[in-house]
Specification:
Blueprint: H1 3-23, E1 33-37, H2 46-57, E2 64-68, E3 82-83, E4 88-97, E5 114-118, E6 124-132, E7 148-150, H3 156-168, E8 178-180, H4 184-192, E9 198-202, H5 203-209, E10 215-231, H6 237-248, H7 257-260, E11 268-273
Parallel strand pairs: 1-2, 1-4, 7-8, 7-9
Antiparallel strand pairs: 3-4, 4-10, 5-10, 5-11, 6-9, 6-10
């Protein structure tokens, strides 16, 4: 056996050891993951995903980072915690907003292991509609046939709730006059630079930058509870502790958090450790 064959022969053993380290027993599939739901905004950069994976590995958290813009986590098989679309075990999941998680190894978890601290230090996200103050517009009825910026089609706080508000007010949705920015700050920037007439973003982002940039909120949606990071119930206590501390250490006001937190919604300021029950 030459050196190349020896390396290839050892690869499955190495991957199994990672799975054993995370779950405490060999898993049917390999490369345990941290899945980040970016439906509420967040970079899908492969470079940043790899950078966060390396950051975690350096802190004894052996999880591979993957982003997903429409993560459901359905798993009909009893006792197995694999995302069927990707065929890999899911060790941890970041969800921006609270909703049912249909992975067998997560369903018993009522609260996240790490919670979200928003820019406004509240435990909810809320959709708002903004315009430039100089327009004199103060209600949704004036937005018929006007252009809009929003986050993504999957975003509740930066698109779906705002469109529902327009429909409830009898205002046609902008459709061809709609621009998706990919994140909340981007959607707000399009409004600030007069590329659109109105913007659909989360209120924490609006509260941070609206007043100083001559913008005003003219409509508010319902408050939706934020979520956070959930660990697979089979993840070992050591890995869970290491990964929790590594994620908790990230902050937007300094590196590497300033870069790595771009994978998360921009209304998230940091992840905080949940109280021990």
């Amino acid at each position: 056996m030459n050196s190349r064959q020896a390396v290839i022969a050892l690869l499955p053993i190495g991957l199994l050891s990672i799975s054993f380290l995370v779950f405490g027993e060999p898993a049917k599939t390999l490369s345990p993951e941290l899945v980040i739901d970016v439906s509420e905004g967040g970079s899908e950069s492969l470079r940043l995903q790899k950078k966060l994976t390396r950051y975690l590995a350096d802190r004894n958290c052996p999880l591979q980072v993957r982003v997903d813009s429409s993560f459901i986590g359905k798993d009909e098989s009893e006792g197995e915690s694999a995302d069927k679309a990707n065929k890999k075990p899911v060790a941890a999941v970041f969800l921006p907003l609270q909703r049912p998680l249909k992975l067998a190894a997560f369903t018993a978890k009522a609260s996240p292991d790490l919670t979200i601290k928003t820019l406004s230090s509240v435990k909810y996200s809320q959709a708002v509609v903004l315009v430039r103050s100089v327009t004199g517009v103060d209600n949704l009825s004036s937005l018929a046939h006007e252009s809009f910026s929003a986050v993504t089609q999957q975003s509740i706080s930066g698109y779906q709730d705002q469109m529902a508000m327009l429909t409830a007010a009898g205002i046609p949705q902008p459709n061809e006059r709609l621009v998706f920015a990919g994140n909340h700050i981007g959607a707000l920037s399009l409004l600030m630079h007069k590329d659109v007439f109105a913007a659909a973003v989360d209120f924490s982002v609006a509260e941070r930058w609206a007043k100083s940039n001559g913008l005003q909120v003219i409509a508010n949606g319902q408050k939706r509870a934020t979520a956070g990071v959930y660990f697979n119930k089979n993840t070992t206590p050591e890995v869970k502790a290491n990964c929790s501390q590594a994620l908790f250490a990230l902050s937007r006001d300094k590196q590497p958090g300033k870069s790595l937190l771009k994978l998360f919604p921009d209304w998230l300021e940091k992840l905080t450790l949940a109280p021990v029950e």
